[in-house]
Amino acid sequence: MSKRLFRGVAFAALVFAAAPSFAQEFATDVLSEKVRFISADDFQGRYPGTVGEEKTLAWLQSEYEAMGLKPGGPDGQWLQPVDLVSLMPRDASVTLKATDGSTQNPTTADGLIVRALNDAGHGHVSDAGLVFAGYGITAPERNWDDYGDLDVTGKVVVLMGGSPEFNSPYRRYYAQDAYKADEAYRRGAVGVIMISNNDWERTVTMRTRSSRLAPGSAPLQFRGWASPEMVAGWGVDAAQLEAAKLESFSAMALPQTISVTANEDKTTVTSHNLLAILPGTERPDETVVFSAHWDHVGTRDPANGEDHIFNGAWDNASGTVGVVEMARQFVADGPAKRSLVFLHVTAEEMGLLGAYAYVADPVYPLETTVANINIDMLPLSGPTRDVPIFGKGQNSLEDMLDTLAKAEGRYVSDDGQPQQGFYYRSDHFAFARAGVPALMPWHGVDFVEGGFEVGKAAWQERFGRVYHKTTDEWSADLDFTSASENLTLLYRLGRELADGNSWPTWKADSEFGQVRARSDASRGTRH
Question: pLDDT tens digits for 31-40?
Fold first, then answer.
């Protein structure tokens, strides 16, 4: 056992004063061997709906069965089915009616696209009023509300892309079209139309191709995209767009109604999440969820003898193995007071679809899910001082992790790329969007040997060389030291959460606090 691990054991005894000391051992050779196994060529890049899925899920189940863990999926099963739905536009018609009774039938060529991006693949709206609601944001923690008192029930909401800066370097969830659609639907709207920020040809290319439907998406009758020239004819001109960027803006009704019929061709492939559970001894209805996506991007057509398999050793065989070994450590040390769920989700590479599916139909209530700790691409390097996380400043999990890290002479930092919005780009985000405090650690660059100068260069070289490339393969020289260190910290965080009474909280300026607050009563009086 290294000195670093020995110091951690001593600290664990302080953190869990009334509990036994937990001697975590995330052996680097075990991590390496298991990553090698599930990123081998015969797993064919672990693409959903293929033999790669079958082999991966069979391996996961066998690992958990060998530990003695119980199936954690629906009805006591290991697997949770996930329908991966693709939609391709088939036909659509639009009628705009002015107050004088005159009508228009705009098409894509005129600057308006409509899609029925819902479970039915069909949408119909008849003479619905149009409303312009600016960014379409309601952010009570920032004193911002574009809707004001305007009732949009049964209406179609016209919205700008993006969001105010809110004095933050981080992109906010409020800027995403999915948030805007969710908020409009929550307020009773039947459709949304986004004003295009791109040239119209690019918008047409992006919005008329096959689209994946994220499970749990707002079931609007339709979603649309309009050119600035189109909405100017509705009364939303350049001056109105500028006015909508101000805090004083309030939504306004437009003098038109819209009728839409849209149909899509729907294709469904069934994939699966896999869940294992270690039931809690005192409060089994309260859960801590560790997650990782098991999928990668499969294969490509071989050409000229080139490697055609995207093995995904780093992304995300490493995280998959990390969650398995996390479960093994919890089993070895004994169950906690709260339940621990080990969730392996499908189709992250297709847009977080497996995670969205779990959150849309959770096996364990989200209201009493304590936290989600997600592992996507474990760090592969020598020891680091830093423990970067995505979305620093979001919730109190980072403060708990920082306390644990400082006991090891380490520290929690941001990911160094706030402009990328990484907090919204892995499976933890599905939980965050639903109000569950979620944490996603990342790869350190402050190397113990060489500091930032060596660490950042090494990170950039590796990322550029292997990310989403056929070169993301296992090799004997992969260094799992930092992976072991991070897993040890995450174990201690998970143990503290699972043996404690507290509920992690969102920070005052987080956009997800208002969602969690809607279910405060479900968590009783413990804090």
Answer: 999 999 999 9
